[in-house]
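ok so for the tutorial part 2 we go from a plain amino acid sequence to predicted structure tokens. step 1 is just haveing the sequence, like this:
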Amino acid sequence: MKTIWDASAKEELLNRVEKLSPESQAQWGKMDVSQMLWHCKYPLKLAVKNENKGNGQFFMKLFKKSLYSDKPFKQGLPTAKFLVATESKDFNAEKSQIIDLVNKTYELKSRDSWNPHPIFGKLTHEQWGKMEYKHLDHHFKQFGV
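step 2 — the prediction. this is what the tokens look like for a chain of 145 residues:
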């Protein structure tokens, strides 16, 4: 499985972001492209900030293994309410921020200490890298890139 810690995977993600435009249409789901980019920033920010905001919720532990498995996420999975964009977002600002966050996250490839994920609890360095790649990959596929 690919990981954001791999330079070629990071470049692939950045190339896919560059293929997005304000006119990019979702193949499933309710978000527009700007809202999707806004949504995708949260997991990257968690990695970059490395804040300890909790130890995971029990029901999410059942979903945890799917974060870093080779099996793709299903289309139309439910999204935590606080990660659902309910208003319009500025495409250029969101695109710029996601590029910055992908680069900042990649720079963490040598970090050896991780605080628990606020929803999924303790993750290894390898699991963080796979989760970050997989989440972006899922949403980029949603928009055909």
